[in-house]
Amino acid sequence: MAPKIDPTTGLTDRQTWNMLGTIVILGALLLGGGLVGCPYYKVWERKMAGQAELQYQQGARQALIAQAAAEDEASIKRAEAATRRVRGWADAARKGCEDVGLSQDRACIDQLLRDAATYSIAKEGHEGVIVSVGAPVSVAVNPNAGRPE
Question: How far apart, in whole angstroms, are the C-alpha atoms of residue 97 and residue 81?
Fold first, then answer.
């Protein structure tokens, strides 16, 4: 007996069932592969997210280190500028007292330093060098001067 051929598809019944069976088996394999591969993908995805977070944190850490170094350098420069300013005040006070004939008068030098410090603080509007107000010049310029060693 000859196989019966479907006029619309041009296939025999056996070929139709074979094709249908192949499609079902391929679908089952695809579904099974997805179910097996999904946990591995999730693990890989978490691993990649963790690596990305680690790189971000390392970059943020490097930025904080660079910022701290810049702040340290800026504070050193501010301190150096304050020291130069105080030394300038001390020289000006010494010369001012010499101009009026009081080169050895400690009260004259201290008063001129107080006036200079007060003017500088009022003019600049920031922390100024308050150390020099009312303190001897040696304390403002060299804090270790006069200390026993």
Answer: 24
